[in-house]
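Lecture notes, continued. The same structure-token format from the folding unit now serves as the input rather than the output. Read the line below as a description of shape only.
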């Protein structure tokens, strides 16, 4: 099967998560679903075993492309990751503040519409970049693609579930369609446009920072009532798969 068709099917699978996460009723429970904690563990495993090592690899690309010394090039890569983390942290804080203010003034546990749409827009940008990287990853092997796909699928489950819980009415009516369109747009952009390696490194660093924040936001707060052992199982399982794939490739 052509690789382009495989990545297209993966993009459609991402779209299915965006469109139908609200139908996964077994996730909507208190305390938090163990499946969400498991997915969060896989995403954390992806951060430490893929994103952080690839950020280090992209620093060498920065060094060659810019002529900076190795230390400065590495710091620039991690600064981009920090920018992604800071952006999404700011958006999450804006959502929380907006919800508190609306609850105090209107008695509604929902953020204001403009703030929620700002969050959807930033999420769409992140989704677009993730879909673009389906066709432009540091690890081009089939196993690397499969691990990337699995980690991003589970990340989308937790991230979309969290986004939908902020304002399910807007998410179900229009927000999910925006995310699905961004996914297909990112995949198509990856087919039609091959960006320079330096730009891909910048995108990957930014995406990495955003994913780190979103994973920690979903799993760490006390009010999430997360489960440690499913989280640990997800992280260990993903780590075993990555290390096994690396060992077999050597």
């Amino acid at each position: 099967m052509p690789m382009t068709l495989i990545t297209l099917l993966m993009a459609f699978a991402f779209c299915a998560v965006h469109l139908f996460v609200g139908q996964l009723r077994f996730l909507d429970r208190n305390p938090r679903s163990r499946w969400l904690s498991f997915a969060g563990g896989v995403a954390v495993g992806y951060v430490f075993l893929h994103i952080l090592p690839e950020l280090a690899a992209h620093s060498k690309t920065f060094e060659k492309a810019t002529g900076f010394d190795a230390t400065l090039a590495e710091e620039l890569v991690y600064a981009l990751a920090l920018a992604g983390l800071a952006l999404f942290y700011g958006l999450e804080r804006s959502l929380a503040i907006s919800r508190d203010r609306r609850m105090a003034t209107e008695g509604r546990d929902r953020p204001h519409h403009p703030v929620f749409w700002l969050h959807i827009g930033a999420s769409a940008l992140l989704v677009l970049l993730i879909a673009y990287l389906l066709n432009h990853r540091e690890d081009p092997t089939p196993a690397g693609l499969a691990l990337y796909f699995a980690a991003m699928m589970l990340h989308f489950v937790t991230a979309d579930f969290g986004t939908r819980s902020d304002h399910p009415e807007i998410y179900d009516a229009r927000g999910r369609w925006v995310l699905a369109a961004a996914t297909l747009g990112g995949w198509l952009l990856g087919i039609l446009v091959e960006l320079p390696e330096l730009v891909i490194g910048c995108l990957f660093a930014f995406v990495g920072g955003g994913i780190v924040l979103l994973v920690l936001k979903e799993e760490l707060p006390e009010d999430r009532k997360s489960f440690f052992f499913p989280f640990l199982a997800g992280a260990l399982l993903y780590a075993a798969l990555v290390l096994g794939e690396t060992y077999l490739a050597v």
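Point for the exam: Helices lie at 3-20, 34-66, 70-106, 113-132, 142-166, 168-192, 197-219, 228-249.
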